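Fold this sequence, please.
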Amino acid sequence: MTRQISRKKTILALLIAVVVSFPVGWIVAMLLTPVLGRLEPVLNLELAGHSGPSDWVFMVIWAIVAVALFLVLRRVFSSSTSNKSSANDLQ
């Protein structure tokens, strides 16, 4: 049995993931600033400046958080769909 998810739920998961990942990604990037500062001499890259992480670091972290959140939401929505169909099959 394959799990199907509707287009509306996919779009909803995408919108939620994009909106929620902005503040979450920013917080994660700011919390990683001390780690990035220690990695700079090792990697010879500008990872963090005096005002926080570099712009590209923010973008990478935001993308990772957005994709992970989208995949989690898709799984939650598809499992809720399969739970409803299982309950309907029992009746």
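The CA atoms of residues 5 and 48 lie 40 Å apart. The first helix runs from residue 7 to 31.
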